[in-house]
Amino acid sequence: MFSCSKEAKQDDLVLPASTGKINTISVIIDDVLWNGDVGDSLRKKLAAPVDGLQEEEPLFTINQYSPKIFDSSVRLGRNILVVSKAPDAEFKHVMDKHAAPQNVFYITGHNLKEIIETIDLHAATLISSIKFYEIIENQKTTAASLFNDKRINQKFNIALQIPSSFSYALIKDRFVWLKKDIPSGNSSLLVYQVPYSAFKNGKIVQNAVRLRDSVGRKYIHGMLDKSSMVTEESYYPYVSETKIDEHQAFEIRGTWELANNFMNGPFINYAISDPKNKRYIIVEGFVYNPSSTKRDMIFELESIIKSIQFLKPKKK
Prior knowledge:
This protein has about 325 residues and is of the alpha+beta class. The chain has helices at about 30-35, 35-45, 70-75, 110-145, 150-155, 205-220, 295-305; strands at about 1-5, 25-30, 60-65, 80-85, 90-95, 105-110, 160, 165-170, 175-180, 185-195, 230, 240-245, 245-260, 265-275, 280-290, 310. The chain folds into two domains: about 1-145, 2-Layer Sandwich (Chitobiase, domain 2); about 150-310, Mog1/PsbP, alpha/beta/alpha sandwich (Protein Transport Mog1p, Chain A, 3-Layer(aba) Sandwich), CATH 3.40.1000. Strand 5 and strand 6 (about 105-110) form a beta hairpin.
């Protein structure tokens, strides 16, 4: 069984703001279940390694709480999963139950076998739902202080919600590179376009790698030598299909390196189809952060890219 609902709120009731870091889940479960096969099943699904990162980082950060200490502070979490025994097996999604915005998921089963089967059956829905709303939450945070993307609007006829912490690193005729520096490294955003013919033979990964390597050789170079950014050959990229602003797109995740150099990191690349203009818009984010984790940095870049909007042509 599966259900999703939004809790009815009284007119005079204003829910408190939810709390919690991006990509964090509060799991409310009995300690005995958590330390056994049920907990193993949850960790296998929710803490699975993120695709495209060199070091293993979990899909979500999990904080486990016993139902006995499910107090007011925990109830304000933005993502809550409650797992328990019950007469029937069920997966339920309730929005804005104790705070807003908030997602509360319930997984129940008559016994351990039923609970684990329910987890296995609905894990993909649970993960995609949390990720979808975390993207929205990240975009809300970004919207509070936006970068002026006027040049991107003019060059590509698209709009992106880019945080004001980014600045232009390089601007060419059909290529833009934006960069954000942090104490331990930086994150970058690339925007460029290619004609439909660039993907005509249907070899998505090969074409995406060829294009990004050609862009790297032309524009992304090392500081102390003539090395350029290329796709790391030892990590075969992950590819999937998706939609961005109702446009078909290919998502490619992998790792990059500076040829003949020690610098490397993860990237996320989207080739977005624009049939009206017979082109693909390529938007890529890549990260250099050798001394720290990279999951949330890549996630920020993903949320920026997924904010893209194709603008209507201006009347002449």
